[in-house]
Amino acid sequence: MENKSLLPNIYEFISKTYPFSQLNDLEKDATATQISISYHSTGEELDNEALAGAGLYMIRTGVVEERNKPDNSLRAKYAAGDTFGFTQLEKQGTSDYKVVFLENTLLYLIPKQVLNFIISKNKAVGEYFNSKEWVRLSSSHNYADEVSADAKGSTNKKIESVCFHDLALVTKDTTICQTAIKLGEANSDLAMVMEGDTLLGIVTKSDITLKAVAKAMDINDPISKIMTTNVTTIDANQTIFDALEIMVMYNIKNLPVVKDGKIFGTVSTTSLLQNSQLQAVYLCQRITRAKSVEKLQLLSKQKEEIFETLVQTNVKPHTIQKVMSHIADTFCRAILTLAEKELGIAPVDFAFVAAGSQARSEVQFLSDQDNCIITKRELNDEEKSYFEKLAKFVTENLDKCGYPLCDGNFMASNPRWLASLEQWKDYYSQWISNTTQDAILASNVFLDMRCLYGNTALVKQLRTHLIETANANSRFLATLISISTAVAPPLGTFRIFVLTKDGDNKPYLNIKKQAINLIIEIARLYGIAAKSEATDTYERLKAAVEIDLIKEVDYQELKEAYTFLNFVRFKHQMHALKHGEKLTNNLNPDELSQFERNHLRDAFRIIAKHQKAASFRFASGKGVL
């Protein structure tokens, strides 16, 4: 560097610019002294030798844009604090793109040799400048369930790290009285009935109280008379979150833990709460036991606390969505149980079905209701009246519990979405054959379905009909991708950021509509084409990999982009909660860090790339190639 007087300014700049902010003081000093400075006027260009093999450019002031060769299409737009040139580091003579200066610009250049030395010495810098966007995204955050097993709040700890080993083991001939004594000695709520190494059943303290004492059984009767068979267990190598899912799904307080085919210990609700800081298990059990809507309303206030805990302890975004989905599912089932208690048992076999984000198990704090009812057959007037009351009861009380009514009225309380299985099949057939965008947009929310309550077979039959009918009509798949690609990720907009405006005419990025939903739509399309029953976004992409619709690297790219986008969304929602602000999916560009802008750009590039690939595959109307 020729002008030594500028050294303090350069040092300060790189100290605030990720990833060079991660260097130690000595590394920052050495880097600052090797940086060269250049000034460029509006309209100037950098091309070929100025980029190929040159090094890393850092924008001190000004705005530039990259233009692809040979079509001159926009690749990206950069402003102060952004970097460019790394992807051209190993090029010679000719670059893949050119750089155009949109304003008078001051550049810092870290030469190739210096940058390579820094990368070799500093892991954070090396990961940040990986040539693959998805690798850069995957290294952008150490989620709690990706770090060591001792990390506080991790839901990816192995169950064996939190289970109890003081076991109450009995045989089927052990008396009820002796079993109660064993439970006391082991200070356990769960006794396991064994035959050698085989688990025959389990008995809890509550079983002894409710099944034996309350019914005046002879306490010298064998414990086999009151034991529960067909026991759900969990392997010691599974995670706390796996246990959480099982306990929420089956309303279980204690789980036997198995290792190498033998009983290893037990895990309880209490141990999970103590070790993972998750209150979800406890909340869901209280929801299940609630006897009134009023009680459910009081419990619903705990959702915010759980969301905050999950975000604060750096739990992976997809795990946060699954936990919040479990809670939403449990509220819905509890309200349906209260509805049947008030209205009587349903006169016709039915399924109460989640649609939209809840169907994908991707509920987050802003999710509203999307649901419907499928009945086994057509209803007469009296039966229809019953289900209309049921739907009204459920949707109104879900609203009271913090799950807002859907603005588009995609709810079971809308008579259109209370229909027989055959009527639902007709709906799908009409939507798929009538391949106008209006028809598909009107039904888009119901392309994702998951049974919450009732006969799951009805939903399975309907999903099978959807998949078979959609794959028989390639125009439908073509229309889906054309709808998706009508919205492009906002590449190159970070300087001016005129994306869309809110009621106060302020520009913002809607991270849901302009990024997250685009990945969901791509995954849904590939899931249907792969004839997958999955509704989860990750699972749909995996299904596409399995039949070679996309490659493993495509899955990794979309997965990491989706994960990072949700991480940014939840972080900014958390900030809003802490400051008493309204929660939205809108990001204020002034509140985005340089780190977030750089990685969001990576995510947007991945989305644009896969929109183009999916469009090429499906938009011709020829279907799967």
Quick structural summary:
By secondary structure, the chain is of the alpha+beta class. 46% of the residues lie in helices and 16% in strands.
> What is the helix content?
40-55%
Low-confidence stretches: 145-154, 493-499
Radius of gyration: 29 Å
Strand arrangement across the biggest beta sheet: 1-8-3-6
The number of helical runs is 23
Structural class category: alpha+beta
Shape: globular
Q: Give a quick account of the main beta sheet: strands, pairing sense, barrel closure.
A: 4 strands, antiparallel
Q: What's the total number of strands?
A: 21
Which characteristics define this entry?
alpha+beta; 23 helices; 625 residues; four-stranded antiparallel sheet
Could you explain how this protein is built, in words?
By secondary structure, this protein is of the alpha+beta class. The protein is built from 23 helices and 21 strands. A 4-stranded antiparallel β-sheet has the order 1-8-3-6. A hairpin with a 5-residue loop joins strand 4 (64-68) and strand 5.
